[in-house]
Design brief:
Layout: E1 7-11, H1 17-34, E2 50-58, E3 61-70, E4 76-83, H2 92-106, E5 111-117, H3 121-129, E6 133-135, E7 147-153
Parallel strand pairs: 4-5
Antiparallel strand pairs: 1-2, 2-3, 3-4, 5-7, 6-7
């Protein structure tokens, strides 16, 4: 028998309590993977820089998130993609990513970019499976040995 659940994507403020909770869980996981609390090069995303932030709710419980930060060139960078461990493999990440891509298209964006890290092979496989291609590291990520960057034409 298949499990069924209700999935709802909601756009919420970056500082919404559910956003803070999911981003804190992500930070703890990244700290464990990289052995440092500050493994992200460059400016951290803020409520001022994140243009849209989506949370995936499963049966009303926050299960995943992701946002877009506007870049100086008018494009968008995917930030803070995360799915709770209990929900991984259930399609939550794909739903969030599709939601972000749709929002970006509605803003006339023609490409999304992102940075992930060498200690996140699961994220690298996910983005590659979803049509993202490796690119030269950009911006603050250029020259960072742990950074891996991707883009996808919309």
């Amino acid at each position: 028998m298949e499990d069924t659940y209700e999935l709802e994507l909601r756009s919420v403020p970056f500082e919404h309590a559910d956003s803070v909770m999911l981003r804190s869980a992500q930070r703890a996981e990244l700290t464990a993977r990289y052995g440092t609390e500050d493994s992200e090069p460059g400016a951290k995303p803020t409520s001022d820089s994140v243009t849209v932030f989506l949370i995936a709710y499963v049966d009303g419980v926050p299960a995943g998130c992701g946002g877009l930060r506007e870049l100086d060139n008018g494009g968008f960078e995917i930030k803070r993609m995360y799915v709770t461990p209990a929900q991984r493999g259930s399609g939550i990440a794909i739903a969030v990513l599709r939601g972000l891509e749709e929002w970006a298209r509605a803003q006339s964006a023609t490409e999304l970019v992102l940075e992930t890290g060498t200690a996140q092979p699961d994220a690298m496989r996910f983005y590659e499976r979803e049509g993202y291609s490796r690119i030269e590291s950009f911006g603050a990520y250029a020259g960072e040995p742990l950074s891996v960057c991707y883009s996808k034409a919309l």
